[in-house]
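Tetratricopeptide repeat family protein, Lyngbya aestuarii BL J. Tokens?
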Amino acid sequence: MNKNREQSLNRHELLKQSLRQNPPDPNRIFDLFLNKSELEINLENVITVLRDSYDKNQYFEKRSQLLVKFLDKALRILSTTEQWLDEIDRLINEYEKSSINLPASLYYAKFRCLATLSVSDAKAESFIEKAIDLEINIYNQLDYQLELAMYYENTSQYRKMKKIIDQCEILCRQYSNLDQQLARTLLYLGHYYFYTFQLDKAANYMNQAQNILETIYQEERDQEEKEILKLLSTCLHYLGRVYFAQYNFVRASRFYIKAQQVLEKARTKYTLSNDLGATAFYHLRLGQVLEASKLIESADYHYDKSQKEFEKCGNLSGKMQVSLARANLIGSQVDDCMVNKKSIWKKQVLQLRDAAQDAQDIGYDRGYLEALLRRFLLDIKYAQIGDLIKVSFAIVTASEFYKFIFSNPSLLISKLQLAIGLYGMGPYHMIRLNQKQKRQPHFILKACPCRYPECRKRINTLI
Ligand SMILES: [Zn+2]
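Tokens:
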């Protein structure tokens, strides 16, 4: 054994002995952790410290602070989200047994974990409502209300979503120092109009949000900058979705790329851990524009990247969307030979069936309807009449279908396709694409604008 290694082992042994004799003050360890950045912290170590302080009232507050501070990081990986939820539940129980008042942020953290583990969960909704009732700080209360609006968006409860956002807007305009919350409110108002197909209104609200966020960013308010950049990235991402829906694919892809650049800037500047979910969504949306522009090879490249990122993190609805998109791409590059066609159709049906089942299991109604409609278009393409009748029946009895029909009776099938993310598919898309190619060819992508050389090397076939 060399001398240096021997010395280091001795030092290590001495340190262990001294720790055994004088265990460090838990308060000091808590403070040490609370001062660390997201990137520096190891969540396993946090959990160990939390466990060491079970059933000790004096550490309730610090435990709660730690669970809230690193919540975002814990939500990025599914297995950590589950561990985090266990710790939160344990602390809520201990609070309830004692006579100490529970902080609203703990209910909020519980809501975020539950909403991450399942798209639709009545229990999650009740916890965020508790947090809103308990919270006295106006900033936090607005944040919680906007989180609830997001929950309604994900579960397609658009009327409830709009009601909350309207309340938030009134509150934000009453006070002068709530411009970050106002920007977020306007952004979500844009989401609402996007999902109810009023695209010009959606773009208008999102542009307003973007302007506010850019102004705050230029003023360099340090404590808010991280949040501002994240919101700005979401704003650009959604503007991309609006342009996409308007068939301006070139502009859409530019906005997606810009959104991802802002996200990366936030990550390097504020030493944040990698937001796998947001990056996965970037690849998914870029893939959709490419697929719609018939750049199949590049679309496949980005769907593949998206799927890999989603597998690392725990975004259930995203994972489902990419698996549905890939089902559609199966066999896109294959010739018209009948033997091939039959086996491809079988593969596609299987993948769509699995995705529909998964969507039902996690309560993701929009994904379930998307799977059914993709199956419907597939059965038309392959003239599978028997299956077509079965699938049609499943579609008209799906709860999500009714939500769309009743919320918007003048709904066209093309809008329904758009609303549930069915891009680059079906006869309606082909007609619009041909029109655009003739009248506004500069709207259609000729090649993928990303920075990945492996993607650029791919030869894209126009089919
Ligand atoms: Zn690319």
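DSSP finds 24 helices and no strands in the chain.
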